[in-house]
Amino acid sequence: MAAMPEASSKTDSPQNGTVDAQEIAKFSAMAAEWWDPHGKFRPLHKFNPTRLAYIREHVSAHFGRAADVPQPLEGLRLLDIGCGGGLLSEPMTRLGAKVTGADAGEKNIKTASVHAQEQGLEIDYRHTTAEALAQAGEQFDVILNMEVIEHVADTQVFMKECAACLKPGGLMIVATLNRTARAFALAIVGAEYVLGWLPRGTHEWSKFITPDEMRQMMVTSGLTPGELTGVSFNPLADKWSTSHDTAVNYMQTATKQSA
């Protein structure tokens, strides 16, 4: 029986910068539950098919690939920043990308590394930050900035450091929550306090980002904002889907001009 490839797990000891220590502690406490589809990360498991389809479609289109082939991301270097337990890093690897998963929570990286090894996947997991990657001159074709920017200490600096890691001609995909009354009602009151989908205190409404603020951050960081897409949940179908409604959740692409 062939030995499984070992998942890399580098540790760069993240400095403060954009890292919010309270946010890291919050998610580190739940690290062991990342891969439980019925646990505290159930909403992400439910959300994953929709965001995976979106990523596959937009990355394939940007790089002129056929989206319906088994590995449309083959040969692309991809950064999953704030990767958590690896819920996106693993499928991106299966789609052919050479994945680096970075997270400021050491427990998250350990969880992700062990799970990847169990699946026989080679993923470069690192306990590090966007700042450290940028300072090291790391460059990626694709950066996934998914459900993380609303948890950092300084969103503009974080976006700038992520943009610095994007190759000219590269593509970044961002997913976050809009700072609206409806987002407060559904994502915090509903999801955390009424339905119990997420632990109370997972999100802070004041850290949510409007699409206008997101666009400005991208432009200030040297990126060209692209398509804005809403993501909506249908409680009757128990399913997420893309939509024109950006009042709660949304995803947006951004590109970096070629030199």
Automatic annotation (TrEMBL):
Similarity comment: Belongs to the methyltransferase superfamily. UbiG/COQ3 family.
Any Pfam family matching the protein: Methyltransf_11
Reaction(s) the record says it catalyses: a 3-(all-trans-polyprenyl)benzene-1,2-diol + S-adenosyl-L-methionine = a 2-methoxy-6-(all-trans-polyprenyl)phenol + S-adenosyl-L-homocysteine + H(+); a 3-demethylubiquinol + S-adenosyl-L-methionine = a ubiquinol + S-adenosyl-L-homocysteine + H(+)
Single GO BP term: methylation
The keyword S-adenosyl-L-methionine appears for this protein: yes
Domain of life: Bacteria
UniProt binding sites for S-adenosyl-L-methionine: 51, 82, 103, 146
InterPro entries: Methyltransf_11, SAM-dependent_MTases_sf, UbiG_MeTrfase
Keyword S-adenosyl-L-methionine: yes
Enzyme Commission number(s): 2.1.1.222, 2.1.1.64
Domain Methyltransferase type positions: 79-174
Metabolic or biological pathway: Cofactor biosynthesis; ubiquinone biosynthesis
SUPFAM superfamilies found in the cross-reference section: S-adenosyl-L-methionine-dependent methyltransferases (SSF53335)
Keyword entries, A-Z: Methyltransferase, S-adenosyl-L-methionine, Transferase, Ubiquinone, Ubiquinone biosynthesis
GO molecular function, one term: polyprenyldihydroxybenzoate methyltransferase activity
Listed name of the protein: Ubiquinone biosynthesis O-methyltransferase
Function: O-methyltransferase that catalyzes the 2 O-methylation steps in the ubiquinone biosynthetic pathway.
